[in-house]
Amino acid sequence: xxxxxxxxxxxxxxxxxxxxxxxxxxxxxxxxxxxxxxxxxxxxxxxxxxxxxxxxxxxxxxxxxxxxxxxxxxxxxxxxxxxxxxxxxxxxxxxxxxxxxxxxxxxxxxxxxxxxxxxxxxxxxxxxxxxxxxxxxxxxxxxxxxxxxxxxxxxxxxxxxxxxxx
Amino acid sequence: xxxxxxxxxxxxxxxxxxxxxxxxxxxxxxxxxxxxxxxxxxxxxxxxxxxxxxxxxxxxxxxxxxxxxxxxxxxxxxxxxxxxxxxxxxxxxxxxxxxxxxxxxxxxxxxxxxxxxxxxxxxxxxxxxxxxxxxxxxxxxxxxxxxxxxxxxxxxxxxxxxxxxxxxxxxxxxxxxxxxxxxxxxxxxxxxxxxxxxxxxxxxxxxxxxxxxxxxxxxxxxxxxxxxxxxxxxxxxxxxxxxxxxxxxxxxxxxxxxxxxxxxxxxxxxxxxxxxxxxxxxxxxxxxxxxxxxxxxxxxxxxxxxxxxxxxxxxxxxxxxxxxxxxxxxxxxxxxxxxxxxxxxxxxxxxxxxxxxxxxxxxxxxxxxxxxxxxxxxxxxxxxxxxxxxxxxxxxxxxxxxxxxxxxxxxxxxxxxx
Lengths: 166, 418
Ligand code: SF4
Fold this sequence. Notes:
The complex is a heterodimer. By secondary structure, chain A is of the alpha/beta class. Helix content of chain A is 33%, strand content 19%. Chain A has a 7-stranded mixed beta sheet with strand order 4-3-2-1-5-6-7.
């Protein structure tokens, strides 16, 4: 699972309410994608390209545990989300809907918006092609990696329900 | 093992679990509200396409709406009702109260069980000695509804030990707000928080409630309080089913222990943009407010109305202040009626609303223009949750809310409590 794309960088403590505003949660996911993070950077949803990489600070995705927040990010074409650390429901939701999420303390200091990043999701290796800096994200639990590879929770739910767990 | 580890072990058919283990466990209760329920139902019907395995364990509460404000909302509620009928799940319709209070009052939350929900404040049920945790819509749609199960990673546990006695005019909510600031937003990410200590033990259930409630705001996975006689007494009254309480081993291990002594605390207020922005009331005193509200996941309890009525009795709201009184359940309203609180607050100028979740996200009520501010007992104060992103939400105890409503600005309640 490799990705290469432009970086869009956001700050700390961003709640899901800011990723998708509450008055938009009943739109279709594709419609919602047009408004992702609208109050923080109106250019993001307009100009983001398929494969781009979203970087954010601490406690990303706090507040309501709505899975539509990562779904809408995924629908913008973002390939990977890299954060200092994520809120736990957001973390869980990303894997369940098949959006790779890496936690990498220090990432926000080493990358800027517009930098080109190269990411290997499985090994957690991140390379900033624009300034040559490299980082290693925290490893992803094998159980979650399996979920991600299957495309999300729904695909592996029957297997999980049989009681398989590590 | 502690309570959470024991419950996870038991419900996943293991003798023991360790932090970091991933388990698949049986879920005893799934709580959905009118919005999360709708989103979950859409995923379930479109992508999962199975039957609901244990409909009796699922309850949907219409708490964001007490009466749909437009056709689109009415349609959503109708679709939810049809979903509930089709699969035979429980439905508590408009006017039943806020999801968490209604779920407890209606017997869905029993000590020793696993409670999950889409609402991020689901960990509040750790108050009843449950392992309670918010999950995403996909967990509910893909594993809880069709199989009655969910996957969990066993969290590390932090012991939060609270001692001391709150001063006159300082309430358990002040302590909970202050504690949020002490631990910090993101101060306990993925952790289980075991709230304990003499201060917690002395509280009654609905005041204890305010502590597991803050779990999510410090980033935690779940919060819990070991059951005692008070927990079991309430559980026996409300629960229609048998339950088996689980207790932490006295020698269970913690990742860390945090001790807090609360005797010196002043009344606290948390102002937008986040809960971490919490300070003694004097720091915000004098800031004007146009709205006051007792409601939300943490508010609208009978304790809140009693506190407020004590201050509002024989007084009037400041000119220009509107006061929303929103009971968290039908039982609370009935109790307030019996105690004369409904009349006292009405005479002071307050408006009673039907039992619901109140101004939470301004779906039925509580939107503000950019020049307005509200003081409330809500659980959150993020910008944009109540209309304009510029509107300010102050959070405080019911007494602070009532005192501020009389003055027309954020005020220390103690002058009214002599
Ligand atoms: S708005 Fe309040 S009730 Fe609704 S999902 Fe968020 S926290 Fe829960």
